[in-house]
């Protein structure tokens, strides 16, 4: 449904922004209230506001005011265009008693639009409630409206008529004051930035829903699309589908202001951990596989909540589940880390768009490498950060034995991270799970279809093979493939792929060998058409992506190695980074011709946070500016936050206003050297690397940072001033 006010002057609608004397602006906004102000003519203004007292009810006022010396003739309209997404009826005029209304139906809901003042319901050129009026000099006219969607037309109409007669504006004002109190106000001197920071916090809270029925749960849905206004099925699978990566990003948006709400979200994750310590994703990623494990981030989220609340009972409740959760990821003993394969189960676990094309089996640009055959440096880094967080948690709780055990785990993982570093590519790469190597590509052989192909290729290092089948006219083939060669020990091996194990998507199938090959003698193929073709190659593990940057900022690199990463992959002046850090880039071999590379907001946030933690505030600030410019342009041109933006032109993609696309407020403050815990407690360090002062206000606390100087005023009037870069914890007491 589209619902909006319209003004006609001399029977001409104001359809474009240029038709107005001054553009309309949102003057107030909270998750349940908005107020829009506009100057129609120099002497004619309009105010339009709305409040949602309950999920199915929207009520508001439209006010027009004249300061002219002559009467003004105008027609006021409220337009409601309903296109049912399921069985229903588009909105249309009806008469109920003496009242003209607009009514429609979508599924079980009957939206009804009602307005005071005696309007007429019309349908040409669109369904609207229409009221002609004459405004006398210095006259103001105010009308109340309501839009209600109940399960019967009669209930919707009666509720709409009743709500317009209540003092709804009092709780509306209270909601605005409550939202202002619970939001962090940021002033940079750049209005677009300030508005985006505010809107991100507001939008995040619109994802907070109450499930149907008696359950008292705090649930954030991943996205609130226009055709998904409420949760339809009251099952856990449909409600609790927020991923840990999205929860980590959500924390960057709403903490510390909504720490109590977020702590309930965190505890919901703990309840989902099964007896084996597994926390499976509840997002249905594939019809062909079970849902994989969530990214290991819970201990870090737990510590983030504790640092704000400082509640040891919260840690005491959480740590048994966290111990069980960590056991599902880690071996029994720290010394086993070196021989453990840390691999993703599914490419969708890391919520990338096109950056993992190396493992993509579904798009034409995908290379279809089995992701379970390679080790991920990003996964090991996440687990190392989890071990460090667990170490801190047990230190706080005084559990020395567990503290030392996780300290040993983190040291072992830090040592293992070095094996992922490749000097040739100046970065971290994937490793083959079996060989623990990133061998160079030694074979790339395209060929038309033939039953037997003699290769006789000996490799300098053990290689995993990939075989790509392409059928003519995108037809699925019933075929079999056999590899014949030698394993790393020099023994002859054959490997067969039967029809049930060859999955075709749009006429393409990708195979990854289970074995490593020291030599490949040949391949036999049965069932291909003479017009089909194939490519045999050694797996290219040198192709990296944004996730592979994560370990660079853990302190495992030398200064020279770290500088190579910064210069080669994170130089914000390079055109490829104009819109943010891309998901992937060309490494040793060309990228697929049709590959459209995305900028991923969620992973940009992860990398910039790691950069800042490693003391690279200047790099993080400049990269944040690039990303911020992209996000603001998306807000202006497409009216929302988006999880992905095209590297080539900055155009947004993905679900509008999804949590994964929201602006990370806490990250911005961290780059600025500020960490807020409460209005009475904060930490400062380093400098403000942005080219302008930053001012923050929150529940009586005010902070100003300019370069290395800081000014703080607490709610009780206590002040503090510093020009030091040394870390300091400030409290009101």
* Counted beta strands: 37
N-to-C span: 52 Å
Structural class, judged by helices and strands?
alpha+beta
Helix % is: 25-40%
Task: Fill in the CATH topology of the largest domain.
Answer: Glycosyltransferase
The total of helices stands at 14
Q: Record the strand order, biggest sheet.
A: 3-4-5-6-13-10-9-8
- Rg, Å, rounded: 30 Å
Q: Beta fraction of the residues?
A: 25-35%
From the spread of the alpha carbons, the general shape counts as globular
Give average pLDDT, whole number: 92
CATH A-level architecture of the largest domain: Alpha/alpha barrel
Topology:
Blueprint: E1 2-9, E2 12-13, E3 22-30, E4 33-41, E5 44-54, E6 57-66, E7 72-81, E8 88-96, E9 99-106, E10 110-115, E11 120-122, E12 128-135, E13 140-150, H1 153-163, H2 169-182, E14 185-187, H3 191-205, E15 208-209, E16 219-220, H4 236-239, H5 244-254, H6 259-272, H7 298-309, H8 312-327, E17 374-375, H9 377-397, H10 400-417, E18 421-422, E19 427-428, E20 431-432, E21 444-448, E22 452-470, E23 480-486, E24 492-497, E25 504-505, E26 508-526, E27 533-538, H11 559-569, E28 598-600, H12 601-613, H13 617-638, E29 644-646, E30 652-653, H14 665-671, E31 674-678, E32 681-684, E33 694-698, E34 701-706, E35 709-713, E36 719-722, E37 728-731
Antiparallel strand pairs: 1-2, 1-7, 3-4, 4-5, 5-6, 6-13, 7-12, 8-9, 9-10, 10-13, 11-12, 14-33, 15-16, 17-20, 18-19, 21-27, 22-26, 22-27, 23-24, 23-26, 25-26, 28-29, 29-30, 31-32, 32-37, 33-34, 34-35, 35-36
Helix pairs in contact: 5-6, 6-7, 7-8, 7-9, 8-9, 9-10, 12-13
């Amino acid at each position: 449904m589209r619902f909006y006010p319209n003004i006609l002057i001399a029977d001409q609608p104001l359809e474009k922004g240029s038709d107005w004397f001054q553009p309309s602006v949102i003057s107030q906004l909270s998750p349940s209230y908005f107020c829009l102000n506009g100057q129609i003519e120099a002497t004619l203004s309009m105010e339009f506001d709305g409040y949602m007292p309950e999920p199915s009810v929207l009520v508001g006022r439209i006010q027009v005011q004249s300061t002219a010396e002559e009467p003004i003739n105008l027609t006021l309209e409220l337009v409601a265009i309903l296109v049912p997404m399921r069985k229903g009826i588009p909105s249309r005029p009806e008469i109920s008693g003496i009242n003209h209304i607009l009514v429609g139906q979508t599924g079980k809901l009957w939206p009804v639009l009602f307005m005071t003042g005696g309007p007429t319901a019309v349908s040409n050129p669109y369904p609207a409630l229409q009221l002609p009026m004459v405004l006398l000099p210095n006259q103001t006219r105010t009308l109340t409206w309501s839009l209600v969607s109940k399960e019967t037309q009669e209930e919707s109409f009666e509720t709409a008529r009743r709500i317009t007669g209540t003092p709804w504006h009092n709780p509306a004002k209270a909601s605005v004051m409550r939202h202002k109190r619970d939001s962090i106000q940021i002033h940079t001197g750049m209005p677009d930035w300030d508005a985006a920071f505010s809107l991100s916090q507001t939008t995040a809270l619109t994802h907070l829903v109450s499930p149907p029925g008696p359950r008292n749960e705090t649930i954030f849905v991943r996205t609130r699309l226009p055709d998904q206004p409420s949760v339809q099925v009251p099952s856990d699978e449909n409600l609790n589908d927020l991923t840990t990566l999205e929860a980590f990003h959500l924390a960057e948006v709403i903490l510390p202001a909504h720490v109590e709400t977020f702590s309930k979200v965190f505890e919901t994750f703990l309840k989902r951990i099964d007896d084996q310590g597994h926390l499976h994703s509840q997002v249905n990623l594939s019809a062909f596989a079970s849902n994989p494990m969530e990214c290991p981030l819970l201990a870090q989220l737990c510590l983030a909540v504790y640092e704000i609340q400082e509640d040891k009972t919260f840690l005491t409740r959480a740590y048994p589940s966290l111990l069980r959760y960590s056991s599902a990821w880690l071996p029994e003993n720290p010394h086993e880390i070196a021989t453990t394969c840390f691999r993703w189960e599914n490419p969708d676990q890391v919520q990338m768009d096109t950056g993992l094309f190396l493992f993509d089996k579904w798009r034409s640009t995908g290379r279809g490498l089995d992701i379970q055959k390679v080790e991920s440096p990003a996964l090991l880094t996440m687990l190392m950060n989890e071990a460090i967080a667990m170490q801190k948690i047990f230190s706080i709780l005084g559990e020395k034995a567990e503290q030392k055990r996780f300290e040993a785990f983190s040291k072992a993982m830090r040592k293992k991270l070095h094996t992922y570093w490749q000097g040739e590519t100046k970065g971290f790469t994937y490793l083959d799970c079996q060989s623990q190597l990133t061998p160079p590509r030694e074979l790339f052989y395209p060929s038309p279809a033939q039953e037997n192909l003699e290769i006789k290729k000996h490799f300098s290092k053990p290689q995993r093979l990939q075989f790509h089948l392409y059928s003519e006219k995108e037809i699925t083939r019933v075929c079999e493939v056999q590899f014949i060669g030698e394993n790393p020990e020099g023994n002859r091996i054959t490997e067969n792929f039967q029809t049930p194990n060859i999955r075709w998507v749009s006429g393409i199938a990708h195979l990854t060998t289970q074995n490593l090959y020291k030599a490949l003698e040949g391949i036999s193929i049965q069932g291909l058409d003479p017009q089909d073709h194939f490519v045999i190659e050694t797996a290219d593990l040198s192709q990296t992506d944004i996730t592979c940057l994560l370990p660079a900022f853990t302190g495992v690199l030398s200064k020279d190695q770290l500088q190579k990463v910064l210069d080669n992959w994170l130089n914000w002046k390079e055109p490829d980074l104009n819109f943010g850090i891309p998901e992937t880039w060309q490494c040793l071999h060309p990228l697929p011709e049709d590959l459209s590379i995305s900028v991923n907001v969620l992973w940009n946030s992860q990398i910039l946070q790691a950069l800042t933690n490693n003391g690279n505030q200047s790099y993080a600030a400049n990269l944040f500016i690039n990303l911020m410019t992209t996000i603001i342009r998306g807000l202006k041109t497409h009216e929302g936050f988006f999880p992905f933006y095209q590297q080539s032109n900055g155009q947004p993609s993905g679900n509008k206003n999804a949590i994964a696309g929201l602006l990370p407020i806490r990250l911005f403050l961290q780059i600025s050297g500020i960490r807020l815990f409460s209005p009475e407690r904060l930490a400062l360090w380093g400098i403000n690397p942005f080219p302008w002062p930053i001012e923050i206000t929150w529940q009586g606390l005010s902070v100003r940072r300019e370069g290395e100087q800081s000014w703080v005023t607490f709610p009780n009037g206590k002040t503090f001033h510093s020009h030091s870069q040394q870390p300091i914890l400030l409290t009101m007491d």
